[in-house]
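Task 17 of the worksheet. Students: predict the tertiary structure of the chain below and write it out as structure tokens. Keep your answer in the requested format; marks are given for formatting as well as content.
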Amino acid sequence: MEMRTKMRLMGFNAESVKPLNEEAAAELGAELLGEATIFVMACSCLVLEYWRHQKNLRRKKGKRRAAWTAMRDEVDHLALALEALQAQVQAAPPRGALEELQAQMREVRAQLCALDQPPAPEE
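Model answer:
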């Protein structure tokens, strides 16, 4: 069968092939069986390696997805904290109003100090 296939591929007449004797046929059969075994084992190794690689890729993608989700959650949390801080800053009195209050406090203290001082004795 092998010889006929080779002959047809080369373009020769495949009908003129003589049958092999028993010993040569057994040797060629054993060789073919050995090559087929090696081929099947090599293909099995390739398939198993491909599956292992795909499993590792899925695991890495899962880790990346989890890390991305955690970062997104952290960014959302920080955005909420920033909004709260901005609301606090807007609720605080403006800087000019604070300086006005400080000036008014100084005036009131000065007036209180002036009232607390005893009158100077008249000469």
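Marker's comment: The longest helix spans residues 22-91. The mean pLDDT is 85.
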